């Protein structure tokens, strides 16, 4: 069906595809003309196009997506993360177990090994209340944390008036401290402990052990120790010293919680390196308790409720706990 003398006609494919063999030069023009007949090629090319497009999106859009996520994660009045941080939606609970000495008399008489019975859990609930939250223009935020502790009686084995027979920690600490001192020093300490009526074993309620009871030795230590080493408290208890802690008895609220020292954290709004976002910067006022290890003043992480964006399974998340004066790193 090709006309004589006109090459163009020769290139036009005939309907009779079965017998017609296309010259290579004709394939390109034929492609558009009969797309239906070369569907696989069409799909391949468009697939490749989409692939290239996808790769470009990943390369160029990832930055935008990251920026958007980071914007949501940064603390601002309208970011969901900020509200979750301000009023943590999860209840924080601490389970306490005590070792109750059940053969006090025999043990003190030296006729038997101590027989200890584990009692617990006594479940402490923590209510976190962030006060004085102030955004600063340089991408930081200061706030104070007020913690309220209360015993969740229905989840505990007993009321906080349960009596526990246990070691007298202040007395044993004092005795341990002078263990290798000169005889005179040891005798003086021993006499002092007797005068103060300190015994190695005490019977105290769960409430007293947790939230503190006045101890003459601790009070004395507070007054005689050189400044810098002195204890800031007059009572002993395992949770005494977390300054912001205030006891709420299950029966009546004693007083409203006082807030801890103000702390400055990065909001994530500024261009901090990724891993510095949401990190605590420092205490604004009274620093960590004095006379403690160097790591006590290293606030190198968050309080555990937030961590920098972009974390994965191998990321070590640093958090510090003021109550135990230290920071910890743990994998996510
Ligand atoms: C602890 O042991 C004493 C006896 O040594 C007992 O009277 C007391 O009930 C025990 N406390 C608890 C909580 O079981
Ligand atoms: C908030 O800060 C002000 C001064 O900066 C202070 O007087 C006030 O006691 C703080 N509020 C709380 C609840 O700590
Ligand atoms: C950011 O502002 C706060 C409050 O004004 C200030 O205490 C802090 O030092 C500032 N941080 C930097 C890095 O400038
Ligand atoms: C914070 O933690 C990192 C990682 O272990 C450590 O290299 C750095 O010295 C720490 N800085 C402070 C101030 O604690
Ligand atoms: C986890 O994130 C760090 C950067 O924060 C990166 O170097 C590392 O390759 C990531 N690991 C995995 C398994 O994605």
Automatic annotation (TrEMBL):
What's a Pfam family this protein contains?
Answer: CD36
Entry keyword annotation includes Transmembrane: yes
Query: Membrane-spanning regions, if any?
Result: 31-61
Q: Which InterPro entries match?
A: CD36_fam (IPR002159)
- Primary location recorded for the protein, binned into one broad class: membrane
- Membrane protein topology class: Multi-pass membrane protein
What GO terms are given for molecular function? scavenger receptor activity
**Record keywords:** Cell membrane, Disulfide bond, Glycoprotein, Membrane, Receptor, Transmembrane, Transmembrane helix
Gene Ontology, cellular component aspect: caveola; cytoplasm
Q: Which domain of life is it from?
A: Eukaryota
Localization, per the record, is: Cell membrane; Membrane, Caveola
What family classification does the UniProt entry report for this protein?
A: Belongs to the CD36 family.
Q: What is this protein called?
A: Scavenger receptor class B member 1
Q: Tell me the organism.
A: Amphibalanus amphitrite (Striped barnacle)
Q: What is the lineage of its organism?
A: Eukaryota, Metazoa, Ecdysozoa, Arthropoda, Crustacea
């Amino acid at each position: 069906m090709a006309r004589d003398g006109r090459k163009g006609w020769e290139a036009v494919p005939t309907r009779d595809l079965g017998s017609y063999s296309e010259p290579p030069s004709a394939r390109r023009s034929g492609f558009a003309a009969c797309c239906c007949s070369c569907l696989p090629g069409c799909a391949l090319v468009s697939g490749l196009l989409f692939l290239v497009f996808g790769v470009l999106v990943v390369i160029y859009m990832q930055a935008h997506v990251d920026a958007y996520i980071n914007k949501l994660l940064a603390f601002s009045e309208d970011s969901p993360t900020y509200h979750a941080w301000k009023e943590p939606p999860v209840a924080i609970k601490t389970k306490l177990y005590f070792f109750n000495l059940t053969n006090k008399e025999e043990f003190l008489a030296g006729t038997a090994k101590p027989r200890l019975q584990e009692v617990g859990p006594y479940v402490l609930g923590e209510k976190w209340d962030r006060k004085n939250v102030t955004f600063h223009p340089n991408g930081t935020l200061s706030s104070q944390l007020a913690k309220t502790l209360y015993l969740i009686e229905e989840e505990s084995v007993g009321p906080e008036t349960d009596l526990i027979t246990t070691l007298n920690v202040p007395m044993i600490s004092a005795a341990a401290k002078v263990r290798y001192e000169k005889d005179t020093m040891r005798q003086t300490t021993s006499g002092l402990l007797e005068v103060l009526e300190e015994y190695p074993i005490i019977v105290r309620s769960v409430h007293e052990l947790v939230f503190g009871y006045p101890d003459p030795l601790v009070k004395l230590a507070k007054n005689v120790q050189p400044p810098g080493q002195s204890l800031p408290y007059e009572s002993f208890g395992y949770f005494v010293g977390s300054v912001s802690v205030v006891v709420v008895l299950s029966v009546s609220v004693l007083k409203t919680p006082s807030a801890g020292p103000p702390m400055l954290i990065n909001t994530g709004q500024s261009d901090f390196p990724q891993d510095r976002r949401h990190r605590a910067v420092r205490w604004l006022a009274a620093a960590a308790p004095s006379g403690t290890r160097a790591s006590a003043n290293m606030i190198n992480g968050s309080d555990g409720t937030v961590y920098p964006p972009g974390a994965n399974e191998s990321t070590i998340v640093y958090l510090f706990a003021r109550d135990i004066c230290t920071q910890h790193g743990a994998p996510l």
